[in-house]
Design goal:
The chain is of the alpha+beta class. Strands 1, 2, 3, 4, 5, 6, 7, 8, 9 and 10 form a 10-stranded antiparallel sheet that branches. The N and C termini lie far apart (44 Å).
Length: 172
C-alpha cells in the first residue's frame, strides 16, 4: 500500500461509518414507524382538514383530532372531526397526510362513525383513500344501495380510521 492510500483510509472508514449509520436510521424508522398527531409539535403535527370536491371552502370546526402512524409505506390514520358550518360544496373528503399509492379501483376502505347529518343515500358512511391523491373521500353504503359519494353537509361529526398504502420517498 502506498502512503497516499494509507492516509485516505481513515477518511474512507469514517465516511463509510456515517453512511451505514444513516442507512440504519432510515431502516429503523421505516420498521418502527413515525407518529404524527395534533397533540405533538413541529413536523410531527397533523391536523385533519375537510374539503369539498367542487369548492374546498372552509369549515367551522368544533374539534379536529387526528393521529397518523406511518410504517414503511403503510399509513394508519385516525380522526375525530366535528363542524358547525361550512362554505364547501360538492362531496366531502378528508385531506390525508400522505399520498395514496397508485392502484386500481378503491382497495383502501376505512371505518367511519358519522353523526349529526343526513346521508346523501344509503345507511352508512365509509372512507376511501383515492389512488394517487391525498384525498380520503366519504362514500355512502347500505343494503340494496349502489355506493355514492357523501355530499358536504352544513354540520356533523366524522370519527374514523383508514389504513392505506402510501408512496415511497415521502417525508415523514
Amino acid at each position: 500500500m502506498n502512503s497516499s492510500a494509507e492516509k485516505d483510509m481513515p477518511t474512507f472508514i469514517s465516511e463509510m461509518n456515517h453512511a451505514l449509520e444513516r442507512m440504519y436510521e432510515d431502516m429503523a424508522q421505516a420498521i418502527n414507524g413515525n407518529i404524527k398527531s395534533n397533540y405533538a409539535i413541529g413536523r410531527q403535527n397533523w391536523i385533519p382538514l375537510l374539503r369539498g370536491t367542487t369548492a374546498p371552502g372552509t369549515f367551522t370546526y368544533v374539534n379536529q383530532s387526528g393521529t397518523v402512524l406511518r410504517q414503511g409505506l403503510i399509513n394508519d390514520v385516525w380522526f375525530d372531526i366535528s363542524w358547525t358550518a361550512t362554505t364547501a360544496t360538492g362531496n366531502i373528503y378528508l385531506e390525508l397526510p400522505y399520498k395514496a399509492a397508485l392502484v386500481n379501483n378503491l382497495p383502501f376502505v376505512g371505518v367511519v362513525q358519522p353523526s349529526g347529518f343526513a346521508f346523501t343515500g344509503g345507511t352508512a358512511v365509509v372512507i376511501n383513500a383515492i389512488s394517487n391523491t391525498y384525498r380520503g373521500e366519504f362514500w355512502n353504503t347500505g343494503s340494496a344501495f349502489t355506493t355514492a359519494r357523501q355530499a358536504v353537509t352544513a354540520s356533523g361529526r366524522l370519527i374514523g380510521h383508514i389504513r392505506y398504502m402510501g408512496v415511497a420517498n415521502e417525508p415523514a
